[in-house]
Amino acid sequence: MNYHVLTLFPEMIEQGLHTSILGRAMEKGLINLEAVDIRDYTEDKHRKVDDYPYGGGAGMVMQAEPVFRACEDVQRRIEGEKARVIYVTPQGKTFDQALAQELAREKDLILLCGHYEGIDERVLEEVVTDYVSIGDYVLTGGELPAMVMIDAISRLVPGVLSNEVSAEFETFHDNLLEYPQYSRPEVWRGKAVPPVLLCGNHDRIEDWRREQSILRTRKRRPDLYESYETAQMASISDKKLSKNRLKLIIADKSALTGAEEGCPERPWAGEFLELIRELDLKLVLLPEEDPKRFCKIMERERVGRREALVFTTTVEGVLAAREERLRTVYLPEDETASEPKELIYYRRISDLLEAMAVLRKLAQ
Ligand code: 9D3
C-alpha cells in the first residue's frame, strides 16, 4: 500500500507514523508513506497557497491550482490505474471498519488534507473521488484524520500484523464487541476471575464469551446490537433447513413466568417468548418435573436429541435432562441458591436475557 498525503504540514505526517507496528511494516516495504507538501506546487513567489474567500467571510481558502498540481504530479508517478483521491473533511461520510477494509485493497491512496476554511470547490470537483470524515467533532486540520485512516487501513494490509488472521476476527466482526479478558492473578484486590474461565471446558468458555459479547454490545452499543440482530435474523432464515438445528424448546412453566401464583414474571420473559416465535421454534411447557416426560415429548414432536433444548428451574430438572443427554439451560429460581457440584457442566443462566443469547447461537 502506498499512501500519498497532500498537506501543508508534511512534517506532521512524517513524524507520527513511523513507530512500532507501522514503522516495521514500512521497513518491510509492506506500506509506503509519502507526505507531499502542497506549498511546493505554488507558482507564487511568496509560496502563498491561500487567499480570501469570494463573497466574503472569515478566514482564508486554499487555492485550487497548487492542490491540483500536487495531485496531478502524484497521479502521474503512480503505476497503473489512477488512485482514489480522498478528501478528509468534516463534511464527508464517516470512516468505519467497512471503509477501512475497502480501502485496504487499493494499491495507492491519495489523501488530501485541508486547512484554513477549506479548499476551492472547483479543484475538489475535478480530483476528489471520496469525501471522508472520522467523526462528528471539530479538529484543526485534516492531518490527524489522515493518520487515523492510515493506521486503521494499514493493519488490514496482509503481513502488517504478526498474527495475520487476527485482524478479521475482532471488534466489529459480526457487529459484536469483544468479550472481557482476564489475566493473573486469579484474585485481584478481592475480585475473582469468572470461574467458567478456569473450568477447562472450552465449549463452555466459548459460549460464555459469546454471551458476554452479546450482553456487552447490547448495553454499551445498542446501535451495533441492532445491526447484529438484523444480520443474525437474516442468516437464521438461510439456515432454517439445516440438520441438528434447534427445533424444540422444553421448559418448566416457571422458567418463563414466575414460579408460583402471584410471583412476579421473570424479566425479559415476553421478549424471550417473542424470540422463540421469531426463530420458529416449538415450545412445550412442562407443568411439573417428570423426568420421563422429555423422551415422550421428543417422540411426539419427532425431534432428535440435538434439536431440543431444555430450560429448567430446578436441579432435579437438570439432572433428569442430563440423564437423557439433552442440552440444558439452568435457570435457578433463586439467584442465591447454592449450586450443587454436579451442575458444573451446565450453564447457569440466571437471567432470561442471557438465555436468549444462547438460543440465538444454537438456532443458527
Ligand atoms: C473552521 C472552519 N469550520 C467552519 C465552522 C469548518 C471546518 C473545516 C475544517 C472545521 C474543521 C476543519 C478541520 N478538520 C478537518 O479537516 C477534518 C475533520 C474534522 O474536523 N473532524 C472529523 N473528521 C475530519 S476529516 C478532516
How does CATH name the architecture of the largest domain?
3-Layer(aba) Sandwich
Structural category: alpha/beta
CATH class identity of the largest domain: Alpha Beta
Give the N-terminus to C-terminus distance in angstroms.
38 Å
Mean of all residue-level pLDDT scores = 86
Mind explaining what this structure looks like?
The chain has about 375 residues and is of the alpha/beta class. It has two domains: about 1-155, SPOUT methyltransferase, trefoil knot domain (Alpha/beta knot, 3-Layer(aba) Sandwich); about 190-360, HAD superfamily/HAD-like (Rossmann fold). Helix content is about 35%, strand content about 15%. The protein is built from 13 helices and 14 strands. The strands form four sheets. The chain has a five-stranded parallel beta sheet with strand order 2-1-6-5-7, sandwiched between helices. A five-stranded parallel beta sheet has the order 11-10-12-13-14. A two-stranded antiparallel sheet has the order 3-4. Strand 5 (about 85-95), helix 4 and strand 6 (about 110-115) form a beta-alpha-beta unit. The longest helix is centred in the middle third of the chain and has 19 residues, at about 200-220. The model has no long low-confidence stretch (mean pLDDT about 85). It binds ligand 9D3. Ligand 9D3 binds near residues 90, 138 and 141. The site of ligand 9D3 has 16 residues, from strand 5.
